[in-house]
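May I ask for an example protein's residues together with how it folds?

___
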Amino acid sequence: MEINSITKKLLFNTIRIDTVLNDGSEGSGTAFIVSHNHANSSYTFIVTNRHLVDDVQRGGLVFTQKRNGLPLFGTRFQLNIDDFSHAWYLHPDPDIDLAIIPLRPLERAANDQGVELYYHTIDSRLALDAMTLRTLDVLEEVFFIGYPSGVWDQVNLMPILRRGTTATPIALEFEGRQEFLIDAAVFPGSSGSPVFINYSDTLRLTRHTNNKLLFAGIVTAVFFREEANHLIPIPVPANNHSIVMGSEMIDLGLVIKAQVIIDLINIYLSQYGFQN
């Protein structure tokens, strides 16, 4: 398969996270790679949810290897990180479910082992800005990429792409937070999935760009029905064992807006940019 489209490149934007929690249970989740310009320099970060790295005893990030600039389909490299939980930079607000880690030191560690990593980044300039938000309709098509219920193409190391729609207007702050809802099948393992919007030709003209997607945010939680008329959003668990029997997912996912991710990267760079 030739990597000749934006969507194909996004297959190599996500990273599978395999974890062993402090209680010995195993889980999986999704992370993805964002590039961001700051102070005339470009920085690259892996982004995921805070709840995917908290209380993790051991964790590994799964990449596809590269040779001569091309992906080696199915050739896996797992980058294991010691003291996994403490390796991540968490959002200073504990109520915001975000964690990031600079990619370049990890990539150097892989290179030291004779391994080249194949990946594509999401340019932070694709994130929804205030002007674009005003042009979006209340119902927009979205898609997200990850490892729902741990499912993936293990032979080719490919994630799963899923589609849905916005369920609340992105221009508004759902429940007063920088979040919105999507009507989509969000399952354990979908945590940390990047969310994108396909937009119309009209919107593309107003934005003056040839890109066919916008970076909207990151999946963080799913709504469960615990009992009649009682709906609650909870972080998407890393495994099915975290789901209480009798709970029912109702295909509404909670998404943190992309701007919150960019803000967190800027906070990190204002403190540690020279270490990236």
Q: What stands out?
A: Residues 29 and 189 are 4 Å apart (CA to CA). The longest helix spans residues 258-272. DSSP finds seven helices and 16 strands in the chain.
